[in-house]
């Protein structure tokens, strides 16, 4: 079944052309700034991903607060992208803003512990159930560091990931299954080492494939999101993680859970909410309220093994950590965000609104008789172009339709609503309101009414 079944594709294409023209007319200042920036910025933007939107030129943000931001032309938007999770708890949450304002007069970095370091680690231990923690500037770095620690602790070199996974820019994870065979992703630039020598990839939810890979006895760790989120959301099937954890332990490997996106599941992430027991855990982007930082934690037993590996190694740089890791600025932001923003009350509000959003999307899709589905993981919701949710990365990849996604995204953007550019993911934050959700649902329904083959 095509992802476009039920849609009048000629109408969709005409709509795209009209929406692009409308965007250009509405945003002359963003156009001017984009042209100016192109003189000195590679690809015309500070980071080339900023071109991955549906717009003919980048939208320039002037200010952002709570669930809203304003662009250079003065238009206000309700933000359901929230920096693709970096601002999951809202833009510039007041406790974080106050904490970094105080810290700005007290120093930024010293390569020494600040007074916030101990309390932050204690709060992380309380939330996630892992007693020992370290810090990085991004989840990419945190995952890199964890892989180094675990390879050193186990004496094993290979890492297992799931097809279609995302763990930042860690080289080891850019391996997919192509016609059932592990292969380095074609999109990875400048890679000179053969990644498949040390990375094993299997499909999510496939226990026999996982067991066969682990049985080789050379896997240091399984690095996984508890719910796949980057290729579209893929939920674990009933009983999958219970059985997978037993297999991982049975074959002497370790489990690393990357909660950078699935922290949407609750104050302790998906693993804590669902009774999982990882050996190590990583959280990036949102943990400091949008300030660059990340955390990773270990069980007691793994911490001892890691310490032994370090103390047994020759002196010199471990390849783990950077000078700015755990800087005073980031620690102040994390402490305020953990203690005052990422609260049980905030999550209750987010869960209620995400359920309102998911139910509303399902109702609209059903009324328009489209073979699409909706998946929700706490405060994170996504609609996908298939009648039933995908079971693995291959299925999720097969139902993605970049042109259709961009048509929907641009239509919403021109009506003051932003969703994530890479797929159809929507986040709500503590500042999102029921009216914001209703506004998005109305615009989504209007898009379908404008493009559907059979009018309802």
Automatic annotation (TrEMBL):
Record key words, sorted: Aminotransferase, Pyridoxal phosphate, Transferase
Protein name: Aminotransferase class III-fold pyridoxal phosphate-dependent enzyme
Required co-factors: pyridoxal 5'-phosphate
InterPro entries: Aminotrans_3, PyrdxlP-dep_Trfase, PyrdxlP-dep_Trfase_major, PyrdxlP-dep_Trfase_small
GO molecular function: pyridoxal phosphate binding; transaminase activity
Recorded superkingdom: Bacteria
Entry annotated with the keyword Flavoprotein: no
Family of this protein: Belongs to the class-III pyridoxal-phosphate-dependent aminotransferase family.
Species of origin: Duganella alba
């Amino acid at each position: 079944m095509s992802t476009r079944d039920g849609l009048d594709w000629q109408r969709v294409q005409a709509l795209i052309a009209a929406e692009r023209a409308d965007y250009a007319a509405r945003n002359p200042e963003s156009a001017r700034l984009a042209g100016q920036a192109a003189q000195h910025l590679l690809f015309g933007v500070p980071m080339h991903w900023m071109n991955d939107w549906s717009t003919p030129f980048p939208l320039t943000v002037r200010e952002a607060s709570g669930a809203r931001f304003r662009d250079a032309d003065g238009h206000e938007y309700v933000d359901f992208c929230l920096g693709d999770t970096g601002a999951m708890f809202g833009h510039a949450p007041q406790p974080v803003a106050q904490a970094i304002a105080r810290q700005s007069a007290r120093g930024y970095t010293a390569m020494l512990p600040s007074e916030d370091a101990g309390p932050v680690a204690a709060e992380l231990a309380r939330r996630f159930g892992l007693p020992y923690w370290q810090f990085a500037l991004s989840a990419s770095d945190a995952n890199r560091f964890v892989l180094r620690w675990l390879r050193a602790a186990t004496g094993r070199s290979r890492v297992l990931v799931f097809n279609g996974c995302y763990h930042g820019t860690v080289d080891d994870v850019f391996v997919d299954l192509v016609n059932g065979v592990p292969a380095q992703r074609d999109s990875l630039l400048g890679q000179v080492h053969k990644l498949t020598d040390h990375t094993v990839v299997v499909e999510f939810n496939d226990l026999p494939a996982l067991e066969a890979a682990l049985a080789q006895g050379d896997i240091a760790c399984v690095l996984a999101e508890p719910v796949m989120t980057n290729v579209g959301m893929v939920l674990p099937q009933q009983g999958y993680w219970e059985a997978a954890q037993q297999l991982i332990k049975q074959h002497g490997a370790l489990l690393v859970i990357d909660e950078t996106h699935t922290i949407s599941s609750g104050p302790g992430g998906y693993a804590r909410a669902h009774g999982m027991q990882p050996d190590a855990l990583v959280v990036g982007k949102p943990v400091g309220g949008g300030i660059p930082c990340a955390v990773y934690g270990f069980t007691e037993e793994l911490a001892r093994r890691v310490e032994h590996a370090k103390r047994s190694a020759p002196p010199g740089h471990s390849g783990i950590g950077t000078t700015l890791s755990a800087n005073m600025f980031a620690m102040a932001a994390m402490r305020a965000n953990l203690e005052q923003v990422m609260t049980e009350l905030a999550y209750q509000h987010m869960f209620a609104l995400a359920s309102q959003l998911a139910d509303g999307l399902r109702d609209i899709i059903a009324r328009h008789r489209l073979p699409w589905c909706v998946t929700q993981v706490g405060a994170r919701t996504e609609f996908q172009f298939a009648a039933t949710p995908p079971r693995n990365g291959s299925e999720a990849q097969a139902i993605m339709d970049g042109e259709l996604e961009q048509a929907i995204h641009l239509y919403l953007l021109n009506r003051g609503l932003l969703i994530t550019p890479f797929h159809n993911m929507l986040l709500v934050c503590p500042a999102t309101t029921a009216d914001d959700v209703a506004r998005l649902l109305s615009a989504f329904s209007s898009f379908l009414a404008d493009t559907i083959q059979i009018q309802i």
